[in-house]
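In practice, a research group might receive sequence data for several interacting partners and want a quick structural hypothesis before committing to experiments. The following worked case mirrors that situation: the sequences arrive first, and a predicted assembly follows.
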Amino acid sequence: MSDISSKFATGINPFAKKSSGLPDKLIMIVLISCASVAILATIGIVMSLIFETIRFFEQVPITDFLFGTQWSPQTAITAEVVGSSGAFGAVPLITGTLLISFIAMLIATPLGLASAVYLAEFASARTRSIAKPLLEMLAGIPSVVYGFFAALTIAPFIRNTGATAGFEISSESALAAGIAMGIMVVPLVSSLSDDVINSVPQSLRDASLGMGATHAETVRKVVLPAAVPGIAGSLLLATSSAIGETMIVVMAAGLAANLTLNPFEAVTTVTVQIVTLLTGDQEFDSAKTLSAFALGLFLFVITLILNVIALKIVNHFREQYD
Amino acid sequence: MTNPFSTEAAGLKARHTSERLFKLSGLAAIIFAIGFLAIMVGSIAWTGSGALRESNIQLSVNLGSDNVDPSDINGASYRTIVRDALKERFPDVKSRKDRRKLYGLLSPDAALELKQFVQDNPDLIGGNEDVWLLASDDADIYLKGGVDTSLEESQRKFSDVEISWVDALTAADQTKRQFNKRFFTNGDSREPELAGILSSLVGSALTLVICFAISFPMGVGAAIYLEEFSRKGRWSEFVEVNINNLAAVPSIVFGLLGLAIFLNFFGLPRSSPLVGGMVLALMTLPTIIIASRASLRAVPPSIREAALGIGASRIQTTFHHVTPLALPGMLTGAIVGMARALGETAPLLMIGMVAFIADVPKGFLDSATALPVQIFLWADAPQRGFLEKTSAAIIVLLLFLVLMNLLAVVLRRKFERRF
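A structural hypothesis for the assembly, expressed as tokens:
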């Protein structure tokens, strides 16, 4: 205060903008460049993936990659022998990825939805305050822990159960990885669906209850149908994160590229192959290492499409009721 | 016409049963998911608790002057001394094969331990001395009850003679179990009984320092720009879409980016915490930006209006008044982001932080590994002794995650302001 009055006394305008040390322009430039890093990162990802992928397709035709049913990049080392330049058909990897993600969603969808409905519609505030953070913890546990548990506990359990029932189940089955992954994405489904269910207007519920429907009937026939688009969005987001998940499948799903839909057999996924191709020694011109970038681009594009669709659906849903 | 609201109405009982079932199925789903969490963490903690104890075997070693020269303590062959002590303890063992098994009761590090012991107590040279030495992983598993003796001898790694030796030692009170300090002070090792988490823990810490130093200022800067300065338009929308998409990119793709750009294009050192931190920083950036924007948005406009009203510039308003109020929220977001980065494995595999690292990394450019990667490596190791080490390392990792999240909660509680 005294500062201001002294300035009045000397005739300096106290409201004149005082420089804050650095010139304003410089500060703005720094801030803008911070914001641009996000864009640079995206550009960097796209560039690095696309350039290496183009180099890969110079060596292996794109149709072989997309439609080939044989994946055995290891033989690519003996390139001198004509015709044995390795097989880069991604179909078994893609079916493997989809199979495991499908199993995961088969588990996560009912669990996540039922939890979300219970938390949003039936639970007391107290139960909610305890159960919700506990569910979120499932998402906070690193995937390497799920992978360890899947390989060490779930897979032997499935194999032993199968053995007592007379089935032969391989020790690295799609099922074990799928179960662990399914549990991991439960909180993704439940917390997003929970938000969506909460944003369904109360008037819809009141109308249904007023007509004499039970609470469960109201949820099943009024709230859930109204929330379907949002729930679909949350399921898409969960699927996208299941497709991109790496450590669980690396530790529990196996390396053999089997083209199968049998959940009891070992399958491999896109992410597993990226890891096996790029860990250890690598020469950067071989089709073997470059194929990992083609797989990475595939992964990036698929998850991007799923996310864009999911976000569109969710935003559209929000606008509808806001 | 029947009254549809009476308790006798057709189907009402069935409807109420289905109501109860519906509610119950929701509760069951939650209990199942949380039960899975409890079983997973519980079983891992149970297995991992074994790694906190190590087994020792007591031997009477001959430190006579023909074995150890008092003027040259380091020159003595402690390996031979230890082996002689074992031979003396079990004089019946004659064949080469059995002798090798006998030597295998002790860890390869036992000789080093003895050397250390003699260096610390040079006055003991000249006589026989009872010394506790570290047991090997196989003997350790047997002593902890991990060997199923009902199995055929050929089905287990620990043979009948070895069991008889260890039993004889135990009967003579020459085995003991004590707290395993090594697990926290050693780096990685090929021998499970010597392996520790220190090198990977330091690697993780160095990586997180880089990650925080890059992602926090950048994330806060980006959030301030987007929230306080950018005009709503194509550009800011484009940035926003980019951030949202970046948040959903699979982590392994960030590893590919690090490999192609940081390692191959810029030629930064492979396996270094520097590159690991940079890759993780790009991954956590969206989390921090989103959290920082939310906490900037929570600062009421009246604060900005007051500052602008008494003549502060927009930059002064932002940096002197709005950002300090939003900082606790930003830090909370950053800590949650760091916790996620700490658990991340896949991108680090891509940039080579998956090597066997026995030494503690000394700087940001040394080869290093991270705790989750160490877990992955140990989980893959064939020796059974690594099972409990892996589990114990997981528990340490989870403890750190819990601590970081608790810190975030405490920060939020302490500095949270309702305007």
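Before designing any experiment, note the following. The longest helix of chain B spans residues 12-49. Residues 81 and 276 of chain B are 45 Å apart (CA to CA).
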